[in-house]
């Protein structure tokens, strides 16, 4: 009779509380694994182990707490048998409840902590561990960032070493340099630089700053997710078109300073060509790896469209004048830098020749970035010279049509 009372009490007090405790660790493990849905493989194996340690401990704690509680309850039932005070039983039950839920709370806190650590940290991974949308260059073997799904993690990655570090910093520093030059230029007193010059040069500054800005931001958030990577990839291509358009404005303006017809015609032409490039860049398929050659070709064609006004100038003013007065030499150097950079980008040398040797530094994309930067600085020098020459000649005596 006594035993049956104990059994009744056991069923009444223990069983309702055991259920959640036993189930909770299972729930915790499935939750903790959810961030790991981003293709966990060998590169993540250590992280996964790390991740499971606190959860495993929490599970064990919960289980040991359960066993402890069972023994504790057995002793409490013997006292129940001796003294069946209802208040004491109620108090004991709430204490039992607290004791059971404490390990659960600990497990939840451990889970929360691990989630935060997981979100904050990632390790560079091998190329074969990347999802398809992050596999842009097969010749860069190691040191890739995994998908982060977090802008914060992407921007923090600027300060870590991986395949994109060089790409990010080359254009981030370039953008800062051009912002500084632009601020210096437009804040000169008007007696030194007039507002027309400031406006014309600003087209180039805006193009350069947007191009370099879109570029480093794209390289930073490229690993966020497929959608974000694609969106910023398009902006990156638009930036190249904007820089090309912005570069043409001061050059055409000062080369055909007193010739309204060609000036308007070529400015409109480069605006239409650049806009076409932007439209093509926004096309989804354009950013796929097998369109690399076409991408390079489209932008080389946009740059080479400058050959027409350059030839026009050589024919009307002569080669010597074009070199000494219209900065044609600097313009040619700029074109060579862009073209060589684009070719290096397209053929992926040197990493194609030595796969895995240029994963972090001196890969083709970084070289391409440096060529773009050099070309932008060369162009700034060229348009400064041509503007200086043109402005020292004074106003146009007459405005020619051609
Ligand atoms: Zn780039």
From TrEMBL:
Residue numbers binding Zn(2+): 219, 365, 369
InterPro entries hit by this protein: AdipoR/HlyIII-related
Record-level Gene Ontology MF annotations: metal ion binding; signaling receptor activity
Keyword Transmembrane: yes
Chief place where the protein resides: membrane
Keyword presence, rRNA-binding: no
Transmembrane segments: 168-187, 199-223, 235-253, 265-284, 296-315, 327-347, 367-383
Topology term for the membrane: Multi-pass membrane protein
Highest taxon in the source lineage: Eukaryota
Cellular component GO terms, alphabetical: plasma membrane
Pfam family, one: HlyIII
Keyword terms, alphabetized: Membrane, Metal-binding, Transmembrane, Transmembrane helix, Zinc
A biological process term (GO) from this entry: adiponectin-activated signaling pathway
Residue ranges with Acidic residues bias: 80-90
Segments for region (Disordered): 70-95
Compartment(s): Membrane
Similarity annotation: Belongs to the ADIPOR family.
Protein name: Adiponectin receptor 2
